[in-house]
Amino acid sequence: MILAAALLALAAPATPPAIGAGQTVSSAPLADTQLADPVAEAKAQALMEELRCLTCQSQSIADSNAPMAGDMRHQVRSRIAAGEEPEQVRAWLVERYGDYVTFRPGFDWATWPLYALPLLFILVAGVLLFRRIGRGGE
Amino acid sequence: MKRLWLILPLALFGLFIGLAAYQMTQPKDEFVRSTMIGKPLPAFDLPGETEDAPRLTSQMFADGTPRLLNVWATWCLPCIAEAPQLDALAKRGVPIVGVAIRDEPEAIAQFLDRYGNPYSAIARDDIAELQLALGSSGVPETFVIDGKGVIRYQHIGDIRADNIDEIYAEWEKAR
Amino acid sequence: MIAEIGLAALWLAAGLCLLQFIAGAIGARGDEQGPVSALVRPAAIVQALLLVVSFVCLLWVFAVTDLSVALVAANSHADKPLVYRISGAWGNHEGSMLLWVTILGLCSALIASLERRMDARFVKTALAAQGFVALGFFAFLLLSSNPFARLNPPAEFGAGLNPLLQDIGLALHPPTLYVGYVGLSVAFSFVVAGLVTRQAGPELARAMRPWVLAAWISLTLGIAAGSYWAYYELGWGGWWFWDPVENASLMPWLAATALLHSIGVLAARDALRTWTIMLGVVAFSMSMVGTFLVRSGILTSVHAFAVDPERGAFILGLLTIYIGGAFALFALRAGALAEGKRFVALSREGALVFNNVMLSAILAVVLLGTLYPLLSEALGTRVSIGPPYYNPVTAVFAVPMLLVLAVGPLLRWRRDRISRIAAPLVLVGVVLAASVIAVVAFSGAGVLPTIGLALAVTLAVASWLPLMGRNPRRVPLALWGSMLAHFGVAVSLAGMASESAFSTERLVAVRSGDTVEVGPFTATLGAVEPVAGPNWTALEARIAIAGEGVDTVLRPQSRTFTDPPQNTSEAALLTRWNGQLYAILGDAAGEGRWQLRLWWKPFVTLIWYGGVLIALGGLLALLGHLRSGVRRARIGEAIAQRRADRESEAAA
């Protein structure tokens, strides 16, 4: 119980972090504050779920407690509040970090097989069904 | 024709094994590199080291002098390990601008006091806006910015003793 | 001492496994009456008993926290509650591999003692294959992952278990999943035996069916449990992230589901012989590929478990031998299998083939998305593949599959006429159209959730249509099982669509006494106070919830564990018939305010209820098939008896 009380004291804010104390939380105003406009917030939320937290293991910035994810959420919310479209914000980040930052792979020289192969699967599926069933019967 | 179909699973499986075996032998690159190399430094305007210090802007990088831009923080342990190497670079005449991420003036003063101050100027980036604009994904990272304010090189992680020459050479190249 | 007994039992079991393989292989060569090959069944059974002894020894050293055992010292701590000390035994690489081998051994013993439908040569071949697979994992355990290795001198304190794993969901989720993964090895051994002994007819399908069903039930439950665990333990309110490790458990399930349906066709109509054989190999290979991906650390995952490249190399080696070998055998032998029976498109077989092809395509998409980062890294760029890729691309295949599922079970085997099922077809069409219109009119749901909801409603109705024109009392148990499982798919789909379309989130910084609205409720923050558990301390918020006739208090916690030191968020959940309220306590936000994250997720629980229904349907089907198997065997015996009687009469 004493330990718990000490913990509560630790959790209280205000003391500046000591050197080497580990990462602090994001202090960006919009990291954990929703936009007042529900339409803009929904847009921001949808985008945040599709952006990768760069300091985490395979998490979106919407799902991460990492400080950097918080700072990225602030960028997303503030840019969308300023009237940018989600795709512009995504493009801004892709310009800086490459395709790795978005969970929605684009269509370019490095990602085309992701879309071409499922098309091939459809073709193969069609051929399989045709061969199996088409000449069947008697 | 029928034979071919029967070999297909084996062939695909072989492809997978080959790929997996190849990747197992490759060193795993955990770094996310910035794709801003060769592009101009993004515009920024950040508060200085203390509340009274002058603000830092992107314009000051376009004065013809190439600089290092060191993204660091007082709460970051590798940054302590990196301090002597930054000092060595500063002693060789390389101007270094520090960008402190999510930091406090008191902590910065304490840190510089304890581990030395290699910086010609320091900016405080409380919400990592410059860090994100640079395409940097962690601390510490060091960028070489040429005299026209164009990003030339990125070093990810703390600068070790054997990185000094390499970074100095990159800075020379940017002159 | 206990650890030494465990290790000795493990070595003895490995020896018996070798015997099982050799005896089985001799039997496979046709000498099924020989003295050596007669040893295969006893070897398998004793091996399983020894493995159980070994595993119990491991449980024991974990339960008493024997710190002279390296594995215990590295993964446990005496202060943990007993249940987590025990579950810690499989919360690490070595222990989970021992569990894996133990289940593999139990499968061998079950085949040896229960399998009577196939002839002796087939059973011996299957046991040889099973033993061969087990040998590799024995080698892995004994040569590089000994769970009983001693630590000298013993550790003073254990390092503890990752607190995220200290949860009842996680205590039960891996063993369930493993029963499923390893259960698929039986399907693998059976199809290998089928290829070796050139038996790929309906008997093979009927013999395989209970095994595949049992494994599939476990996989279904394991995935559902894992998803629910991730949902409340990780504290992000998400239930599926398309993370590589999640995909690793989904892929065997998809393959097993396809296999289950193609087995149905093979058993009833003697069609799809080569296809079923191939799926049998694919299903187990997905289990092994999944294990490889999870443990090699080759992909980045939030659930990364026991990562070590050296182990990865070992598993990759085993994968190459077993799966490569089986596919090579398939390429050599499958061509010689007699082609199965034919059928027309409009028939039960036709619908099931369509289902199989679509499931395989979904499997291929998931595999592609999971492995693609490896490929692109080899080419020098890094990409991330997540829900925005998987959701629409799998839907391209899942939607037609579910539409066919709505009417497929109504079709007759071999050939059917549209006019015969016109009435139910019209009914399904009307329900589908009405639900699409209703969803579009009354909710602003996106494209995929709209399709999902409409399909769920349609399927929920359509799954019971096979009852039409039947006397419910005379409906076979297996058919009840399939209807229930299909209904479960509809229920689960409804939950997924509803969660994604109607969830509301509130992210607020509030003082004690402040009130927030979330969904149909109001949440009022009370005190935030410290509380202490056996091996953690926490800050606990009291949040009063009111509305919709509810008046209760939620207590989310922000926990700090001591061994190892780590912080976790413990979500507090209010479960109602129509959804869940999900509350998370975040950081202090200054000036006496606290960050709260609140979600109202309408009908989210249907996702997991659906999973349970699917598993329950599987269980009914399993019981039904076992019962009819017994009945068939009895009739066969009676016929043989009568024939013998007649012959003896004639002789007299």
How would you portray this structure in words?
- The complex is a heterotrimer of chains A (138), B (175) and C (652).
- Chain A is mainly alpha-helical.
- Chain A contains five helices and no strands.
- In chain A, helix 2 (38-48) crosses helix 3 (67-81).
- Chain A is elongated, with a radius of gyration of 23 Å.
- Chain B has a five-stranded mixed beta sheet with strand order 5-4-3-6-7. A two-stranded antiparallel sheet of chain B has the order 1-2.
- Helices cover 38% and strands 18% of the residues of chain B.
- In chain B, strand 3 (67-72), helix 2 (77-91) and strand 4 form a beta-alpha-beta unit.
- With 652 residues, chain C is of the alpha+beta class.
- Chain C is 62% helix and 12% strand.
- In chain C, strands 2, 3, 4, 5, 6 and 7 form a six-stranded antiparallel beta sheet that branches. Chain C has a four-stranded antiparallel beta sheet with strand order 1-10-9-8.
- Chain C is globular, with a radius of gyration of 27 Å.
- The N and C termini of chain C lie far apart (67 Å).
List the helices and strands and how they pair.
The complex is a heterotrimer of chains A (138), B (175) and C (652).
Chain A: H1 2-11, H2 38-48, H3 67-81, H4 86-97, H5 112-134
Helix pairs in contact in A: 2-3
Chain B: H1 2-25, E1 45-46, E2 56-57, E3 67-72, H2 77-91, E4 96-101, H3 105-115, E5 121-125, H4 129-134, E6 141-145, E7 151-156, H5 164-173
Parallel strand pairs in B: 3-4, 4-5
Antiparallel strand pairs in B: 1-2, 3-6, 6-7
Chain C: H1 2-28, H2 40-63, H3 70-75, H4 82-87, H5 93-114, H6 120-144, H7 168-196, H8 202-233, H9 244-269, H10 273-296, H11 309-333, H12 348-378, H13 387-407, H14 422-442, H15 447-462, H16 477-502, E1 504-510, E2 515-518, E3 521-532, E4 536-547, E5 550-554, E6 557-561, E7 566-570, E8 572-576, E9 579-590, E10 593-602, H17 606-651
Antiparallel strand pairs in C: 1-10, 2-3, 3-4, 4-5, 4-6, 6-7, 8-9, 9-10
Helix pairs in contact in C: 1-2, 1-6, 2-5, 5-6, 5-7, 6-7, 6-11, 7-8, 7-10, 8-9, 8-17, 9-10, 9-12, 10-11, 12-13, 13-15, 14-15, 15-16, 16-17
Order of helical and strand elements of chain B: HEEEHEHEHEEH
Q: How would you state the average pLDDT of chain B, rounded? A: 90
Structural class of chain B, by secondary structure, is: alpha/beta
Helical run tally of chain B: 5
Q: Low-confidence spans of chain A: pLDDT under 50, at least 5 residues?
A: 1-22
The share of residues in helices of chain B is 25-40%
Task: Give the beta-strand count of chain B.
Answer: 7
Strand content of chain B: 15-25%
**First-residue to last-residue Cα separation of chain A:** 80 Å
CA-based shape of chain B: elongated
Number of helices of chain A: 5
Biggest chain pair contact, residues each?
A-C, 53 and 62 residues
Largest sheet entry of chain B: 5 strands, mixed
**Biggest sheet, spatial arrangement of strands of chain B:** 5-4-3-6-7
Structural class of chain A: mainly alpha
Alpha-carbon distance between the termini of chain B?
64 Å
Question: Per the principal axes of the C-alpha atoms, what is the gross shape of chain A?
Answer: elongated
Strand percentage of chain A: under 5%
Mean pLDDT of chain A: 79
| Major sheet details of chain A | none
